[in-house]
């Protein structure tokens, strides 16, 4: 149960209802963070625009490098929703999700390339409190990915820190996206058809 009551479709304005339908069609269910954030309409809109723009702009890095760094942040912070959703996104991108079980030992696992190890180590350094990023680390990443790649990697790691910490604070936990049974939001199916679901 989330710490802030989700906004059900029957209580949502037209814009939120349309966003729910779009998200449900894209992901198979309405992501629960959307339903909690919908309590603040202006932030909901700002977040949706930002997420779409960031996704569209983040095309410099190879998907495997970017997604592994983001996943590592979620795993480190302990956001089960982000881990669940991030695993689904990697699966949909055709990436190997089985190796995510070994991310705790990425430094020694043969399942990760040197570029991936460098990105994961950077995610750890950025996420640490206080941060532990070094000049040498950034220089190494620049050699690997270019200046724009380092900026993209840093931006995505910072963005995931925001998501993971916010969702954890609000009590948003795994929803079943990776299992194909995303059903925590009781009215997820009805959000597509516009009907009110149980308890909605």
Automatic annotation (TrEMBL):
InterPro entries documented for this protein: AhpD-like, CMD-like
PANTHER family tied to this protein: 4-CARBOXYMUCONOLACTONE DECARBOXYLASE FAMILY PROTEIN (AFU_ORTHOLOGUE AFUA_6G11590) (PTHR34846), CYTOPLASMIC PROTEIN (PTHR34846:SF10)
Keywords, ordered alphabetically: Oxidoreductase, Peroxidase
Lineage: Bacteria, Bacillati, Actinomycetota, Actinomycetes, Mycobacteriales
One GO molecular-function entry: peroxiredoxin activity
Pfam families named in the record: CMD
Domain Carboxymuconolactone decarboxylase-like per the UniProt entry, residue ranges: 53-124
Entry annotated with the keyword Kinase: no
Species: Rhodococcus maanshanensis
Keyword Oxidoreductase attributed: yes
Protein name listed in UniProt: Alkylhydroperoxidase AhpD family core domain-containing protein
């Amino acid at each position: 149960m989330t710490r802030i009551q989700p906004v059900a479709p029957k209580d949502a304005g037209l814009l939120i209802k349309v966003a729910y339908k779009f998200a449900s069609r894209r992901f198979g269910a309405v992501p629960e963070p959307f339903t909690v954030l919908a309590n603040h309409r202006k932030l909901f809109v700002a977040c949706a625009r930002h997420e779409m723009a960031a996704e569209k702009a983040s095309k410099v890095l190879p998907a495997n490098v970017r997604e592994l760094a983001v996943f590592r942040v979620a795993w480190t912070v302990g956001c089960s929703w982000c881990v669940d959703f991030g695993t689904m996104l990697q699966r949909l991108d055709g990436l190997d999700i089985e190796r995510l079980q070994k991310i705790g030992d990425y430094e020694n696992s043969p399942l990760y390339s040197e570029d991936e190890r460098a990105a994961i180590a950077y995610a750890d350094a950025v996420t640490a409190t206080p941060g532990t990023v070094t000049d040498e680390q950034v220089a190494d990443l620049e050699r690997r990915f270019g200046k724009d790649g380092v900026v993209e990697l840093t931006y995505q790691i910072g963005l995931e820190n925001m998501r993971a910490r916010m969702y954890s604070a609000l009590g948003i936990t795994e929803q079943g996206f990776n299992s194909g049974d995303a059903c925590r939001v009781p009215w997820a199916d009805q959000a597509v058809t516009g009907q009110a679901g149980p308890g909605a």
